[in-house]
Design brief:
With 103 residues, the chain is of the alpha/beta class. The chain has 4 helices and 4 strands; from the N terminus they run βαβαβαβα. The chain has a single domain, classed as Rossmann fold (3-Layer(aba) Sandwich). A 4-stranded parallel β-sheet has the order 2-1-3-4, with helices on both faces.
Length: 103
């Protein structure tokens, strides 16, 4: 089971993304809108991938990436701005299979 941390500034979108990810049998999504909560979750859980949603300001994203990578330099961090459930699943699957950082 791959744990995926979803960070978004929009609670409604976050809920949808988490639900879509959790429909995949091998994935478990954990979501938050708050960076400090994300860092706490990241430190406690074995996170395979971090998905950054829309609405995170560039300076917030830069700081968040630096903090996540300081904890685990090998973590995958990708961005998802929408485009439907098929695109979301494809982006995550591609990143996990190829172990590449996208975004």
């Amino acid at each position: 089971m791959e744990n995926i941390l979803v960070i978004s500034r929009h609670p409604e979108i976050l809920g949808v993304v988490v639900r879509l990810i959790n429909q995949q049998p091998d994935w478990n999504a954990i979501g938050t809108c708050v960076d400090q909560d994300a860092l706490q979750i990241f430190q406690k859980e074995n996170i395979a991938l971090v998905l950054l949603g829309n609405g995170i300001l560039p300076e917030e994203e830069e700081k968040l990436r630096a903090e996540l990578l300081a904890i685990n330099p090998a973590v995958l961090i990708i961005q998802h701005y929408g485009g439907g459930s098929g695109l979301l699943v494809c982006e995550i699957r591609q990143a996990l299979e190829h172990q590449v950082v996208i975004g």
